[in-house]
């Protein structure tokens, strides 16, 4: 990696920042122009992410020294397989939900496109940064944009849900700050790699402080990820958000998961001395409780948007428990599950809006939205949005069935492979000979994973019968092609994950083994050479 | 000095948490502001409390022990800016909620 390619690493942050700022220059009367700029930027970011993925898979860990300061002193951006994977996943979701928003949502409120780009900037920054405080800054960029987006479309319901969302996340940010400063006060560093080197050397009297700091940090991330006692805000905010916003928010809960997956093996892995394994029990038990809670919620929810939100909790819980079991094979399968379930839930959120369009509650919601934002034309919004395509209901039904199979983990699609791989990893013969407690946790994990699949299947079947087979008022929802394309695209991607399961799984396993053996990561960051100064210019 | 600062942080965050759990939006925003002050003071204190120690290197030679740690001061500046911005955003939310629901309860309606 040298020359121009070296700077590719900073593009996923700089590109959305620049285009988000550019979009502020145009006012809301030019939605088409704004949309085109946004789409170009999103697709370019996705393209860069794919290039970075190839780079991360072939060459060593990429390190970008911001301001050319050597590693423990300046802020670094680090690219490895895990961050590249998350970048690509975010890019895919962003492209899909943006395309969906073009049908009508992008004109339902001010500054949708700028906020969308700033959200991408924050999320990409979280994946790339190698510095704790910089992580906080990118988290705040992401959250600030999401505060705006959750309110997109306005209306009392969104305002109420948004109020809770913002209050909870602001409080979590304060915990984040306290955690970071506690860790800094003991170790004297904020660089993640340097922190991993210094943690084993912390004296016994200070260890409690560091662990308290790490625990507070953990709470902040778990709020974001939606672990059980900390997840009640999610069930208000996600169903209230506009469909494309909810779809892109499917990645936000995975951001918390990503940070936990990055930090817990790095800081508290086997090499961490006395603190090794700190917090993994909490992740495991909390994750299992989250699966159980989400599962009951899936069975109990009436509205489809709530069903999808509870599915996010099930997915988060599964991933948290998998991280808590801290086994490299299981982590690899869990990463596969992460990609598969995120794509599924995003597609499901988009699909829900189309299905509910023919039904009265959603129509009420949209009417309220238009009223609150002061829509100029008083026509029925239903009329201008699309025509009744032939076979719309059939396409929607097939997509719905696909989502159901993915959530339940039934064979042809990738949900099955993901769950099967996780179960196979749990039951793999133990390499290190750790029996007893681990085996019990594995059994509970297995049971909950299968039961949650069954619960998802039951809930989806019930909803499917109610909506597609026995509708009380059989109105065919009017749907635009541009709204169907992103859903089909996301579902086809999960099909591609199945077909190309071997290579994808190989990548995930490489990622997981790199995450669980962070020596290479630490080494690459701390030895990254600054760019040599250009040859002295002769002033004439 | 340590005791006074610790008590101050404790009182600020304690009152902040109490206000945060109150049902009125205005109380919530006051609580968030108090917590943010407590957090800012806390970050500042992680550089150790010292007087007569500049954080910026001067031309006079001396050992590193003559200087205060500049990093927490830089961090606290960032934290102040961010919490200020998010508090302002929350204030807008509060007004919007008041306007749309006609109530200043955090749930948009009084508990019956």
Provide a compact summary of the structure.
By secondary structure, chain A is mainly α. Chain A has helices at 11-24, 31-58, 81-101, 112-128, 132-150, 156-187, 192-198, 204-225, 232-240, 243-268, 280-300, 304-324, 328-356, 360-373, 381-384, 392-408, 414-427, 437-469, 481-499, 501-516, 519-526; strands spanning 62-65, 76-79.
Helical fraction of chain A: over 70%
Q: Could you tell me the radius of gyration of chain A in angstroms? A: 23 Å
Order of helices and strands of chain A: HHEEHHHHHHHHHHHHHHHHHHH
The order of strands across the largest sheet of chain A is 1-2
What is the string of SSEs of chain B from the N terminus onward? HHH
The general outline of chain B is elongated
Topology, please?
The complex is a heterodimer of chains A (540) and B (112).
Chain A: H1 11-24, H2 31-58, E1 62-65, E2 76-79, H3 81-101, H4 112-128, H5 132-150, H6 156-187, H7 192-198, H8 204-225, H9 232-240, H10 243-268, H11 280-300, H12 304-324, H13 328-356, H14 360-373, H15 381-384, H16 392-408, H17 414-427, H18 437-469, H19 481-499, H20 501-516, H21 519-526
Antiparallel strand pairs in A: 1-2
Chain B: H1 2-20, H2 25-45, H3 70-101
Helix pairs in contact in B: 1-2, 2-3
Describe the structure.
The complex is a heterodimer of chains A (540) and B (112). By secondary structure, chain A is an all-alpha fold. Chain A has a domain at 279-377 and 387-431 and 438-499. In chain A, 72% of the residues lie in helices and 1% in strands. Chain A has a two-stranded antiparallel sheet. In chain A, helix 9 (232-240) packs across helix 12 (304-324) and helix 16 (392-408) runs parallel beside helix 19. Chain A is globular, with a radius of gyration of 23 Å. With 112 residues, chain B is an all-alpha fold. Chain B has a single domain, classed as Helix Hairpins. The longest helix of chain B has 32 residues, at 70-101. The termini of chain B are far apart. The chains are: A mainly alpha (540), B mainly alpha (112). The interface between A and B is medium-sized, with 30 and 32 residues.
């Amino acid at each position: 990696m040298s020359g121009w390619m070296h700077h590719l690493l900073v593009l996923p942050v700089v590109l959305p920042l620049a285009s988000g700022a550019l979009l502020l220059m145009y006012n809301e009367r030019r939605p088409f122009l704004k949309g085109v700029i946004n789409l170009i930027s999103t697709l370019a970011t996705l393209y860069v992410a794919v290039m970075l993925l190839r780079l991360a898979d072939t060459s060593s860990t990429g390190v970008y020294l911001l301001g050319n300061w050597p590693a423990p002193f300046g802020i670094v951006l680090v690219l490895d397989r895990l961050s590249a994977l998350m970048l690509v996943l975010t890019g895919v979701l962003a492209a899909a939900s943006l395309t969906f928003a073009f049908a009508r949502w992008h004109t339902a409120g001010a500054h949708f496109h700028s906020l969308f780009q700033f959200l991408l900037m924050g999320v990409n920054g979280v994946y790339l940064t190698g510095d704790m405080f910089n992580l906080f800054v990118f988290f705040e960029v992401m959250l600030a944009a999401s505060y705006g987006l959750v309110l997109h479309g306005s209306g009392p319901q969104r305002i109420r849900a948004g109020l809770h969302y913002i209050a909870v996340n602001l409080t979590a940010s304060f915990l984040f700050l306290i955690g970071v400063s506690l860790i800094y006060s003991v170790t004297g560093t904020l660089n993640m790699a340097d922190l991993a080197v210094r943690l084993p050397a912390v004296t016994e009297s200070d260890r409690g402080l560091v662990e308290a700091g790490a625990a507070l940090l953990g709470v902040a991330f778990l709020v974001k990820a939606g672990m059980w006692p900390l997840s009640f805000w999610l069930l208000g905010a996600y169903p209230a958000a506009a469909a494309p916003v909810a779809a892109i928010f499917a990645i936000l809960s995975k951001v918390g998961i990503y940070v936990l997956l990055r930090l817990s093996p790095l800081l508290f892995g086997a090499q961490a001395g006395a603190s090794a394994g700190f917090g993994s029990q909490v992740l495991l038990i909390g994750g299992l409780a989250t699966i159980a809670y989400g599962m009951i919620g899936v069975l109990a929810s009436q509205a489809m948007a709530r069903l999808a939100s509870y599915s996010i909790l099930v997915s988060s819980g599964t991933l948290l428990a998998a991280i808590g079991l801290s086994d490299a094979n299981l982590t690899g399968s869990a990463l596969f599950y992460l990609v598969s379930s995120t794509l599924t839930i995003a597609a499901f959120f988009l699909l829900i809006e189309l299905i509910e369009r023919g039904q009265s509650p959603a129509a009420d919601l949209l009417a309220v939205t238009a009223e609150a934002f002061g829509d100029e034309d008083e026509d029925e919004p239903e009329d201008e949005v699309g025509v009744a395509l032939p076979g719309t209901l059939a396409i929607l039904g097939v997509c719905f069935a696909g989502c159901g199979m993915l959530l339940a983990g039934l064979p042809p699609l990738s949900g099955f492979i993901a769950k099967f791989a996780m179960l196979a990893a749990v039951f793999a013969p133990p390499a290190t000979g750790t029996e007893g407690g681990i085996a019990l946790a594995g059994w509970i994990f297995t049971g909950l994973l299968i039961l949650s699949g069954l619960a998802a299947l039951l809930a989806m079947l019930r909803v499917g019968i109610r909506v597609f087979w026995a509708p009380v008022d059989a109105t065919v929802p009017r749907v635009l092609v541009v709204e169907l394309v992103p859903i089909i695209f996301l579902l086809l991607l999960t099909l591609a994950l199945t077909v190309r399961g071997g290579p994808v799984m190989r990548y995930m396993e490489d990622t997981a083994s790199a995450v669980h053996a962070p020596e290479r990561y630490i080494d690459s960051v701390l030895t990254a050479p600054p760019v040599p100064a250009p040859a002295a210019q002769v002033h004439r | 000095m340590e005791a006074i600062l610790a008590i101050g942080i404790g009182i600020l965050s304690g009152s902040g948490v109490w206000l945060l759990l109150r049902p009125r939006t205005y109380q919530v925003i006051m609580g968030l502001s108090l917590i943010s002050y407590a957090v800012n003071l806390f970050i500042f204190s992680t550089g150790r409390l010292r007087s007569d120690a500049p954080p910026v290197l001067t031309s006079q030679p001396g050992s590193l022990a003559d200087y205060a740690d500049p990093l927490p001061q830089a961090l606290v500046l960032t934290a102040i800016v961010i919490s200020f911005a998010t508090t302002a955003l929350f204030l807008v939310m509060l007004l919007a909620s008041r306007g749309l629901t006609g109530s200043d309860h955090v749930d948009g309606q009084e508990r019956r």
